[in-house]
Amino acid sequence: MSYCVAVIGAGTIGRSFAWLFARSGYSVQVFDPRDDLAEVVTSLQADVSADAAAHGMLASELGSIGLAESVEAAVADASFVQESGPEDPQAKPTLFAQIAAGAPKDAIIATSSSTIPASLIARHLPADVAARVIVGHPFNPPHLMPLVEVVPAPATSSETVERALEFYRSCGREPVALNREVRGFVGNRLQNALMKEAISLVENGVISAPDLDAVMKNSLGLRWSAVGQFEAMHLGGGEKGIRGFMDHIGTSFAEIGQLPLDLSDEGMTEVYDQVEQAYGNTPSPAGAEARDRAQRAVLESRGHGGAHSEGATPAHG
Questions:
Q1: Distance CA 134, CA 112 (A)
Q2: Is residue 234 over pLDDT 70?
Q3: 16: pLDDT confidence band, cut at 50, 70 and 90?
Q4: Separation CA 311–CA 288 (nearest Å)
Q5: Between β-strands 27-31 and 64-67, what pairing exists: parallel, antiparallel or unpaired?
Q6: Which of 83, 149, 203, 310 is catalytic?
Q7: Are 227 and 237 in contact (CB under 8 A)?
Q8: pTM over 0.70
Q9: What is the pLDDT of residue 59?
Q10: Which terminus has fewer CB within 10 Å in the chain: N or C?
Q11: How far is Cα 131 from Cα 315, in angstroms, rounded to an integer?
């Protein structure tokens, strides 16, 4: 396929994106200053080929993953650039200026950042370049999780938004465009709210950390894998839908107050101890593999069991 994609940054997110793009048929050029980039790229290409063969795909249906010697070389022919470098608000504007100088004049330049808005990254870029800068924030790992949050800055053109949505859909993702920038975007704001509530419940002795996880996995986690927040409320409200839901329990929910919360290391001591006792001092590869198997099973049950959601985990460098 002639459509070329550049991946800048070969950490966990960058490797996963490179795997996804090549698996989707695109020619991918990867740049990262890491010393072992050649080994990383070779492993990624082998993983893509092996996974495709296991699923009966023809070699002609696959893209390729190549190593670029510089940012400029990686983006020279790219129609789409996915930047997945360090979460550094000082470094990203400089990097994007470098990308813009080397990329074609119509290339979309997306960042995987989970906190840095496109407006900050593009604030010193010419207007025509800033119009092509956008956030393409995935949930980890992006080769498995369907969501990509597409977040425009005020300067981002509507054409860029539509092209980004189309590109991610072509990779089997389910992108969602935000109407405007907000710190943390949407997925992380929801995750942040739930994380704080979970920590406060453990810190205040209401429940243990592993039991809280059991609550999540056996109730809300199952529900939310099938329906979203508002759809669940609408379905749970009887004939009146969401209005009936709020009439029934809205007032009582509003009266649930917040518990004390301490996110300092000292305040988190009990949470740290309980999590490490339950799951080990360091995350295990077996735990990650079990998580990915369960997530793939959920995706398959929802009709996302195709080529873009079943792949093996991209090689780690």
A1: 9
A2: yes
A3: very high
A4: 14
A5: parallel
A6: 149
A7: no
A8: yes
A9: 85
A10: N
A11: 34
Question: Token pair of 150, please?
Answer: 């597409």
pLDDT tens digits along 249-265: 999 999 999 999 999 99
DSSP of the chain, one letter per residue?
---EEEEE--SHHHHHHHHHHHHTT-EEEEE---TTHHHHHHHHHHHHHHHHHHTT--GGG--EEEE-SSHHHHHTT-SEEEE-----TTHHHHHHHHHHHHS-TT-EEEE--SS--HHHHTTTS-HHHHTTEEEEEEPSSTTT--EEEEEE-TTS-HHHHHHHHHHHHHTT-EEEE-SS--TTTTHHHHHHHHHHHHHHHHHTTSS-HHHHHHHIIIIIHHHHTTS-HHHHHHHTTGGGTHHHHIIIIIHHHHT-PPPP---STTTTHHHHHHHHHHH-SS--HHHHHHHHHHHHHHHHHTT--STTTSPPPPPP-
Residues 130-178 have pLDDT tens digits of: 999 999 999 989 999 999 999 999 999 999 999 999 999 999 999 999 9
Q: Which residues contact 115 (CB under 8 A, 6 or more apart)?
A: 87, 183, 184, 188
Contact 9, 20 (CB under 8 A): no
Residue 149 is among the residues annotated as catalytic for this protein = yes
> Going by C-beta distance under 8 Å and a sequence separation of 6 or more, which residues neighbour residue 150?
134, 135, 136, 161, 164, 165, 168, 175, 176, 177, 178
**1, two tokens:** 């396929």
Measured CA angle at 24 (ends 23, 27), to 5 deg: 85
> How far apart, in whole angstroms, are the C-alpha atoms of residue 254 and residue 232?
18
The label of the residue with tokens 């929801």 reads 190
